[in-house]
């Protein structure tokens, strides 16, 4: 059993499947995720793929919560979320 890391509990209990700053992913691999959520140091927390009806472009560079189906990409050793919805988070309201 793996315990949540410090600060991870709020993200797990929230309606969002993942939280972080949305960045584009540049990869030559076919089928690679188009986006990633990163932490304050720029480290990838979760890869994100949008469903056909979700446009994540307006959220690039912003801190967002992503709601959707969770998964895992073994070759990158990172979680993955298929985004059904993105919600901008106002960092000023976080304490």
Number of E-type strands: 5
| Low-confidence regions | 1-14
H/E order of the elements?
A: HEEEEE
Given the helix and strand composition, which structural class is it? mainly beta
Which percent band covers the strand fraction?
35-45%
Main pleated-sheet profile: 5 strands, mixed, barrel
Q: What shape does the CA trace take?
A: globular
User: Cα-atom Rg, whole angstroms?
Assistant: 13 Å
Could you give the distance between the termini? 29 Å
Q: What fraction, in percent, of the residue positions are helical? A: under 10%
Work out the helix count: 1
Main sheet: strand order: 1-2-3-5-4
* Mean pLDDT across residues: 82
How would you concisely characterize the structure shown here?
This protein is mostly beta strands and 95 residues long. The chain has one helix at residues 8-13, and strands spanning 18-24, 35-38, 44-50, 63-73, 78-88. Mean pLDDT is 82; it is low at 1-14.
Description:
It is globular and about 30 Å long. The protein starts with 7 loop residues before the first helix and ends in a 7-residue tail after the last strand. The longest helix has 6 residues, at 8-13. With 95 residues, the chain is mostly beta strands. It has 1 helix and 5 strands, in the order αβββββ. Helix content is 6%, strand content 42%.
């Amino acid at each position: 059993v793996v315990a949540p890391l410090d600060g991870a509990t709020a993200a797990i209990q929230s309606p969002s499947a993942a939280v972080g700053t949305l960045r584009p992913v540049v990869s030559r691999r076919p089928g690679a995720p188009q986006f990633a959520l990163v932490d304050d140091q720029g480290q990838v927390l979760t890869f994100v793929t949008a469903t056909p009806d979700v446009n994540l472009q307006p959220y690039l560079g912003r801190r967002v919560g992503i709601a959707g189906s969770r998964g895992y990409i073994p070759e990158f050793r990172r979680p993955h979320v298929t985004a059904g919805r993105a919600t901008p988070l106002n960092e000023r309201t976080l304490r």
